[in-house]
Amino acid sequence: MSNLAKIEFSAxxxxxxxxxxxxxxxxxxxxxxxxSKTINEENETSSQDKAKAIxxxxxxxxxxxxxxxxxxKNPSALWKNLKERYDHQKEVILPVTRNEWxxxxxxxxxxxxxxxxxxxxxxxxxxxxxxxxxxxxx
Length: 138
Fold this sequence. Notes:
The protein is mostly helical. It has helices at 19-32, 47-59, 63-68, 75-86, 89-103, 112-128. It contains six helices and no strands.
């Protein structure tokens, strides 16, 4: 059991429900490992770095996705395939998040910290999809 590599964060679910947080985690971890260029389409990284990156990516995706992308050996190709498959999550999340923002009311929360947490979660999601907020005073 001690030989098993630790997973730093949760694997990408086959439904894509955790895609937003997963993509940010992967980008940060690859950057910290010096492998961030391996997921760019036009990269000139070594085959050893590509192998490290593909191992890392495969370790952090669902078993069903591993089987589906079994023959993909290039990290940039796998990254592109996953992006094409799940990047629409931004468009799906946007209307829901905008609705949550418009319905957010301080009086609906028992504690200020709960309100702040909900507000920052919504703001974070909107920033992720690159949408600006219109603040309103109620």
